[in-house]
Amino acid sequence: MWAGREQKRTDSCDVVVVGAGLVGAAVAANLTRAGFDVAVLEAQGIAGGATGYSTGMVLTGLAGHYNWAVSAYGRQKAREAWELTVEGRIRLVETARRLGVDVENAASLALAVEDTEAEALEESATLLREDGFDVQFDPGDPLDRGFCAALRYPDDVTVDGGALTRALLVADEVTVHEGTEIYDLEQEGEDVRVWAHGRTVLCGGVVLAINGYAPLFDSSFADKIAPTRSLVLATEPLDVVILEQPCRADYAHKYCRQLPDRRLLLGGWQRPRLSDRGRNRETEMDDVMQDELIHFASRHFPDVDLHGADRRSGIMGFTPDGLPLVGSLPDLPQVYFAVGLGGRGLAWAFAVAERLVELMLRDTDPGVLSAGRLA
Predict the structure, then answer these.
(1) From CA 171, how far away is CA 32, in angstroms rounded?
(2) Residue 4 and residue 234: Cα distance in Å, rounded?
(3) What is the spatial distance between Cα 45 and Cα 179, in angstroms, rounded to a whole number?
(4) Distance between CA atoms of 330 and 352, rounded to whole angstroms?
């Protein structure tokens, strides 16, 4: 036990949620509506992580085409995973409209950058339609920007994830402590003691909604969550609208969207190597990603000037099989988690939150999201 703990402010509540992104907000709101006294502890600010730096694209499916998912999981599990992202999108839209947060039904395009990917999109389209999903395959290039094919998801939407997160916390009057980093958790009788910057909280349960930061907090996530760098470049407002729907490309490693103010967002991500540690390495990876985005833009958006584009980066979390993890820590069963959302946090948030709360309150199996699958 490190020195100084006894000088901290001491609080108590029923449940502490760690992380004030959209997943943490959705869990906290659900528990508050169920009658629990909930406090959210956030190391930065509300929506200060992946939720805040996202492009606002609520996309059906995983970070990979459907034919890959069918091959990796089998047909039934792939369909169930896709259906969960649809469920998450529906819940998000319902919540946003209830809270008065704008949602735009802009559809989305998955774009192929090479012939092999075009074949994957065509195969995915056939499988998706057979499994009841509404998609349209275009063997050409609907944007006339050097792509090889496109798969259209007509029901996808865009939303300001930060605005939705803040509105959800306000509407349910959830207490949030920003700038409150968690250092440690320990069992204390039947409760859990949460040690944080400036305070300690005694509570009956804890929820970790910290996505890609999970391995930094608990070593049990080291072989289950791969922290993954992402980078977004935001241009100055363009003179004209060049992109009417959000897009993902290059096997979902690149994504782009033009905002209502006509700024163009270009984003990308790549998995880190085991040696990717420390600030210098992270900066180097951002530079590599920026070079890749500039190359992508020069090929497909040569009319866009990226000089002076704003740059923001962050951490996503990927599991070995690409599906989120919902469960509890083996050594602290009162500590639950929903992590590893794989760059699809906005689509997953409400579906994941509902399954986590069901696990906490009724011990309901999370199904394909169960952390037990990676045991």
Answers:
(1) 11
(2) 43
(3) 6
(4) 20
**Do 231 and 267 meet the contact criterion of CB atoms below 8 Å apart?**
yes
pLDDT mean over 165-189: 96
Which residues make Cβ contacts (< 8 Å) with residue 333, sequence separation at least 6?
A: none
Say yes or no to pLDDT of 80 above 60: yes
Structural domain boundaries of the chain? 1-107+156-224+320-375, 109-154, 226-318
Provide mean pLDDT across the span 232-257: 95
Between the CA of residue 10 and those of 24, 178, 179, what are the distances in Å? Answer: 22, 16, 16
- Collapse the DSSP code of 360 into the 3-class scheme (helix H, G, I; strand E, B; otherwise coil) and give the result: helix
Query: What's the average model confidence in pLDDT over 198-221?
Result: 94
Query: Tell me: the pLDDT tens digits for 290-347?
Result: 999 999 999 999 999 998 899 988 889 999 999 999 999 999 999 999 999 998 999 9
* Residue 348: closest CA among 61, 31, 126, 3: 61
Mean pLDDT on 128-135: 98
Give the strand pairing for 108-112 and 175-178: unpaired
Q: What is the DSSP code (8-state) at residue 273?
A: P
CATH architecture of 1-107+156-224+320-375: 3-Layer(bba) Sandwich (3.50)
In order of 206, 256, 275, 314, 358, the CA distances from 229 in angstroms are 27, 17, 13, 6, 31
Give the helix, strand, coil percentages of the chain, each rounded to 5.
Answer: 35, 30, 35
DSSP 219-265: GGGTTT-EEEEEEEEEPPPPSS---SS-EEETTTTEEEEE-TTSPEE
pLDDT score of 271: 58
A 10 A CB-CB count for 313 gives: 18
